[in-house]
Amino acid sequence: MSSFWGVNIRLSVFGQSHSEAIGAVVDGLPAGFRIDIEKLRSFMRRRAPGRSGLATPRREDDEIEFVSGISQGALCGAPLCMIIRNRDARPGDYSEFADAPRPGHADYTAAVKYGGFQDSSGGGHFSGRLTAPLCAAGGVCLQILEDRGVSVGAHIQSIADVADGRFDPVKAGAPDFERVRQNPLPVIDTAAGAAMAERIERARAEGDSVGGVIECAVAGLPAGLGDPMFDGMENRIASIVFAIPAVKGIEFGNGFESAGLRGSENNDPFAYDGGRVVTSTNNHGGILGGITTGMPLIFRAAVKPTPSIRAAQKTVSLSMKKERELTVKGRHDPCIVPRAVPCIEAAAALAVLDAWPAPNHK
Amino acid sequence: MSSFWGVNIRLSVFGQSHSEAIGAVVDGLPAGFRIDIEKLRSFMRRRAPGRSGLATPRREDDEIEFVSGISQGALCGAPLCMIIRNRDARPGDYSEFADAPRPGHADYTAAVKYGGFQDSSGGGHFSGRLTAPLCAAGGVCLQILEDRGVSVGAHIQSIADVADGRFDPVKAGAPDFERVRQNPLPVIDTAAGAAMAERIERARAEGDSVGGVIECAVAGLPAGLGDPMFDGMENRIASIVFAIPAVKGIEFGNGFESAGLRGSENNDPFAYDGGRVVTSTNNHGGILGGITTGMPLIFRAAVKPTPSIRAAQKTVSLSMKKERELTVKGRHDPCIVPRAVPCIEAAAALAVLDAWPAPNHK
Amino acid sequence: MSSFWGVNIRLSVFGQSHSEAIGAVVDGLPAGFRIDIEKLRSFMRRRAPGRSGLATPRREDDEIEFVSGISQGALCGAPLCMIIRNRDARPGDYSEFADAPRPGHADYTAAVKYGGFQDSSGGGHFSGRLTAPLCAAGGVCLQILEDRGVSVGAHIQSIADVADGRFDPVKAGAPDFERVRQNPLPVIDTAAGAAMAERIERARAEGDSVGGVIECAVAGLPAGLGDPMFDGMENRIASIVFAIPAVKGIEFGNGFESAGLRGSENNDPFAYDGGRVVTSTNNHGGILGGITTGMPLIFRAAVKPTPSIRAAQKTVSLSMKKERELTVKGRHDPCIVPRAVPCIEAAAALAVLDAWPAPNHK
Amino acid sequence: MSSFWGVNIRLSVFGQSHSEAIGAVVDGLPAGFRIDIEKLRSFMRRRAPGRSGLATPRREDDEIEFVSGISQGALCGAPLCMIIRNRDARPGDYSEFADAPRPGHADYTAAVKYGGFQDSSGGGHFSGRLTAPLCAAGGVCLQILEDRGVSVGAHIQSIADVADGRFDPVKAGAPDFERVRQNPLPVIDTAAGAAMAERIERARAEGDSVGGVIECAVAGLPAGLGDPMFDGMENRIASIVFAIPAVKGIEFGNGFESAGLRGSENNDPFAYDGGRVVTSTNNHGGILGGITTGMPLIFRAAVKPTPSIRAAQKTVSLSMKKERELTVKGRHDPCIVPRAVPCIEAAAALAVLDAWPAPNHK
To answer: What is the ipTM of this complex?
Structure first.
């Protein structure tokens, strides 16, 4: 595995779906910063399973235990280690998949890579549960960024065939992000949110699943962050967003749409706004040449439908080397997208803070 | 800058559009491998400017000088350094943009990041010219992969509003890749290719530009490559593909389309094919859990329209802190997409070889 | 901080002397390997405080809690996280040193670097206590190496003015290492060991401290490990050995002594021994050009005397910006050298395994 | 190989003794800094072969060609690539050693690691010639450090049995460094220098070689540089100093001597000197807990005697699998130590600048 990430911020994520605990170590955070625990808890709750009827019935309170890195109530420069106990684990549910890999899951590739020794229980370290420590780490970064005037927000851009509106690429900011979070599903257009909930509910009723797209914006950034060619903002964000299971695509600014435009349509004119260089449109998504322009950084990530569905599926028996049928039981999300929204925010926060060399202390 | 990349393969890319030379250092290649120079030259020609009426009139033969890493005609374990002279450089063309940044270019962000000391000539190290050493490095990797039975091919998926067909996600392989390369533009459907050429020509005539999408496939891969969470195949490929200027999005397998599907539609059933585990469809694009399945690895990259266009554009004067108009002169591609095709192949080859820990020698 | 280390093995060490726990994450270990817990415990005990009258009276059982990375009793490919609770912590002992830095300690440099927010309790993350997770990680690596026929052993080369004998540089191996461990202090010459114990005891009685040198040998290595120029065996071992507090020097093979020899004395003739290339002497310490020769890899590390002594010392008050006296109370080792012996073995094991690219599973 | 190094400064070194050229890429240097070419040349001359009768008769002018990274006479933020042509190469001299490895050289380990495909000519990439690009890169860093008030100097501490004096560990600075450089050999005590020259000359006359120790000091450092545990100043400096061929040991401050002292002797009292915290002695060598204290950073490196000697030596024939004699001809230094002095300064400068996160531009 490669469970280590980062240049200025160093992150190590560990744990399996049903190991004793999962967690993260984060190094490079500024000493003296005080984590708002209640705020972090509230951020974690946005990702937690068992929160609404729309997600898996597995219940975890995801309470963070601060193992190290804090002294006198503030970050102390030593690596921050946070662990989260796995309480509602049911290892027995998954034994079958080590031999009969679930279509769309990592069961088969894990068996090849780890020689059959992988932890197949609950998807092991491929489980979406590993996004909890990612959120813990990213949640701390979000607070540090906020302290520097940077806010990060995401909403569901689409689920199945239902599309939400988009953030205003020029003006998106904290109030928009806050508004989205007040809704049952994090969307701009509440009617779209209701239709999405209906699609998820229908998929669940039919033992099927749906996917979607998440849009994320980072507002309040200074110009000049990002290190091209290989640690530009796009490279950096992509390198961590693809660590979130089920993400199969990412685009920045206009993204794939820009491929159909002409330069005269896609270029964003520069202008002055109160002594500050801005662009009057933001098709570039706040990044030019891999470096932030100071405009909102905007990207979208495609999330595939949860592969765990109720219908019988064709697979193989690795031990018997023949084809067979498989029915996946157990507790599964009919749609991972709503819970992935804070994960995307966390990943964005980590990537931005990683691009921001800062003093060792406040 | 962060011009270093890789874990098992280490890559350093250097140079500016109008520096004395550009080049790459590649470490970690297997000693004893003999580079087919003529084949590498031919690969480089697919990227070279001045090849057809569709691209920039700047002419560079892009002849590679092998500075180090070769002994007795074979790789010797020492880092391979290759340099390419900049012959047809015209530094004078660009002086204006240091103060009046071109919309859609890195002129502004470079000025902020490097305090006005950036090499603004020809876009400096943000220039598409830097993809030449990327192609040199990737071209060598392509040959090493071929020696291991792996082939890499890409085609133009779309330019402006014209779409090509897609590679067969289950059966794509070397013959398909070869066929595509025989066409004036690298496409599957020659009629689409003709229409694309027309769009490019029209954009040029109108002093404008067009973008497009490139699809890439890697065939013949073993199962088991890739190191999740952070060096899975998607993370790895994305981290290098976004080093190619103008790329604004990437998707794997079904990508953004999968977000609109149900799990029952998107999951690929496992099956046996002559003792080998395969999937009967390939919506997953050859990657599950960040690890190769052995099916063709498929991804698409969105390329924005070249920002250099003839029309007058709104920008600012950084020194005078006021808005002004700018007309970009000089030699520019109306469409970078055809020349980006081998760059995408090169990036894919580097990423795949980087995920493939191999002996120090043949 | 930079608490992350490694290329093929990735290590993250976290914790402070008096934080809730300390621990390590290790990634890249071969799936399927079964850790011998009892053996690991016994290795940890060699480092543990409170073991004999010669060390600090602080008592910690250093029981390892395996948080993740194990499934069905074997390593599963996911990162191994191990934590060790801090039970006998007495944070109150150290508050004074945040303002009045102890001579020879990191109190002052930590205050500068972390702006006064460092955890000054017990030395925070500069404490020798952080070598416990290093030993846990290295202890696992030692077992994996043993499984490959490689054994690692260290002994006290000197304490104060008392010198032990040296390992036979050509023939040193597991039996020698085992013999050393049977002694009250890990030495070759038991008479020297007794004299060392006397020096330590005398230093303690006088409220002072003594330092020493540790010699380490790695036997059974294949030729060919190590990646010059920057990840050769010397670079690699030094980069982790200097993470052990109080180490101020390292030398390989003949080391500083070779500086006084002639080439004709220092060169080791090559010979054949049963079809295997060997050297008849081993002044090179098993490393030529940064790469193992297959002869025992031998190095020595200098450990300074523990800076915490009873005598009053001159220091400054950072807040009052004036000079003052300081008397260090609390529990301290009069000599850290005996407990550093397993730490050096652990560091060597980590460095060797890091240089040994191996399959993902047994 | 692992020819890449660094965190904040990224370095790639390439080339073989007899390849077309050798060179280095350095990324992360501050844009806007103007390299003093004449000064760099003069620094390079201190390392160059053929300078005096005491070194190898191979003559290279080591003129640096600046390939990239400079614009308008100043660093521009893009990676600096410098190459040095190999002019006086005589590949024919070395063919024998691929089969009959020279004792004390990397011939054997290279053959094992690279499967016989290594460039054995002149030691290939194991050659001391590779320290030329290290000096080019380090020479630039020295100038940048000087601009920040930091100076680096080294002298020969000993050759064979002749010892020089030592830098004053508390007061060493630029004037001392300059004085040393005025001498025929870089020493403090000119009488010792004369005796050293005699030892070298005698070794040459007898076809033998001698080694020595180099002492290096870095003055003018701020307190607070260095990132423990794994990127502390000792780890960082060691990781690059061991890239210099023939270095077999390193010690900081009192180093191995401190192992024989008591804490009460070795501890350095803190004091105030004009509002600045200093230590009244400097046994700690300017580093506590891996972090600079602001006192001169002092280390010593042991350099083994050049393994190439005239006397017949015992070795093996790898192809015939039997023992044989070998007589090494060709041009060789009877003592590498004088030429290694600027290499050590260069390595120190790179390590210090790497620990110094700084703005992207002046």
So the answer is: 0.96
